[in-house]
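step: validate -> pass
step: tokenize input -> pass
step: predict -> running
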Amino acid sequence: MGFVQQELTAKDNQMIKLYRKLAGSKKARIEENAFVLEGYRLVSDALKNGADITRLFLTVGAFEKYGSELCTLSAEKCRIYKISDELGRYMAETESTQGVFSVCSLPEKKPLGEFVSRGGVYAVLYQIQDPGNAGMILRTADALGVNGVIFSRSCDIYSPKVVRATMGSLFRVPVAVCSDVDEIFRELSGAGIESDAAVVRNETVLAGKCAYPGSGRAVWIGNEGNGLPDEISERCSRRITIPMHGNIESLNAAMAAGILMWEMTKGRE
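step: predict -> pass
step: emit ->
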């Protein structure tokens, strides 16, 4: 169990400054090897799933409401701080804060070759920039039992907006980051995993009418505005489009990813 180290009231306290720095800067998250969480649900999910939370901040009200549970879940090395309500509002990234904040170590990075497993089902997000889309795709992957999500040249998974959008799924879905497209294709192919490209035009296969054999599969989802570049979709085994009616040309990236992940996983037990 973690323990309450001290009460904090000053904005210039080093722990508060560190939290704010991590919340606002990807560079800082990389340098400190840590990111931040806000909210009871996120923090409790992180603790229950074995995330390495090193610092926990609770306002007086939050300590009365959640303190017993979160302190019990916390590891010995976790430092717990009581903070004033004013300080909680200063730290908050949300309009109606619950007064629960934490600093969490970034998970250890695995080589992509160890991340990808034969027969697995994966989503590859290429140049996805919207935090809400990234978070929703992770939540859907969690719900459908997808084996992992690979971020390639996309938004920072550990930014506060993406972390909040995952609603805790970040701690349950294996995630990898790789900017090298050649490496991604090589490792997927080496594990016997064929790639599908999610496209709007020039389709060869319609979602819902294509077979998914027993071997592994990965679907590539492109940028919200531009989709997948031709040089990537042409390297995939097939191009898949979602048939639509009316005047709609395309779906939101997260919605499209959800439909295609469902297609890939619906036959699995």
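step: describe -> The mean pLDDT is 90.
step: cleanup -> pass
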